[in-house]
Amino acid sequence: MKKAGYVWMAVLCVAAATRAEPVKLIFDTDMGNDTDDLMALCMIHTLQSRGAVDLLAVTITKDHPQAAAFVDAVNTFYGRPDIPIGVVKGGVTPEPGKFNLLAAAKNADGSLRYPHDLVSGEQAPEATGLLRKLLAAQPDQSVSLVQVGFFTNLQRLLDSSADAHSPLTGKELIAKKVKVLSIMAGAFQPINWNTRHLEYNVIKDIPAAQKLAKEWPSPVLWSGFEVGIAAAYPYVSVERDYA
To answer: Residue 1: what pLDDT?
Structure first.
């Protein structure tokens, strides 16, 4: 659970620096490609229940309609069914993933096993527009972004133009509103003695990763694959701490 361990540390680091009020957080994820994204979202909800985080939205870089439905099911489970969800259009990894189809699972009586009302990502807004809308409405230098999936959504935000939500370009809007971007991506040490580890979140959209690395205007906290290896999360905590 490499991403889960990293997100826990990243959010706590931001929270420690701003204890006066909850961290305004947007979570960007490729939900469905592995269980660590799910665990990370569960951690964020638990931190919100503790008053450490204010989850403004979840944006998704996995281009499958059930990814958004699954996120909505998780949000609903934690009693927050109205958290905005934005989706990528024309993104990578369009296959269902390992568990996103559970969002459509039903009981014998035909009711959803995991209640939620967003049945498909086709009903959700495109992520770039949602990000611009949310950032424009927040105080300056107040939003923390956590990206644990591909770079597609945030690269498109970076390249976005003025719209009804803000007269600023994407780069200007980020510089004005974003306090920090925490990214789970890359590898900055050898992985199993491999000095050219091709980390999944980077290689799935290399142009977007390169664009963000070169041009993102706010402070960025990079967490490579080696951090997840060093901070493996205890599986017993899954049942004990996040129900």
So the answer is: 46
> Does the residue 7 lie in any domain?
yes
pLDDT at 9: 56
Which H/E stretch holds residue 47?
helix 35-49
- DSSP secondary structure string for all residues of 135-202: HHHSPTT-EEEEE-S-SHHHHHHHH----SS-SS-HHHHHHHHEEEEEEE---SS-BTTBTT---HHH
| Phi, psi for 66 (deg, rounded to 5) | -80, -10
Could you give the number of structural domains in the chain? 1
Whether the predicted pLDDT of 35 surpasses 60: yes
Q: Is pLDDT of 146 > 80? A: yes
Contact yes or no for 185/222 (Cβ under 8 A): yes
| Residue 194: domain span | 2-233
pLDDT value of position 101: 92
List residues bridging with 182 in a β-sheet: 146, 221
d(CA 78, CA 25): 16
Backbone angles phi and psi of 232, in degrees to 5? -55, 135
65 within 8 A of 100, measured Cβ to Cβ? no
Using CA atoms, how far residue 178 sits from 4, 174, 175, 182, 184, in Å, is 22, 5, 6, 11, 17
Q: What CATH number is given to the structural domain containing 12?
A: 3.90.245.10
Q: What would you measure as the largest C-alpha separation in the chain, in angstroms?
A: 54
Residue 123 lies in a domain: yes
71-90 b/e with 16+ CB inside 10 Å = b?
bbbbbbebeeeebbbbbbee
Instruction: Give a yes or no: residue 160 inside a domain.
Output: yes
What tokens appear for 166 in the block? 């803000």
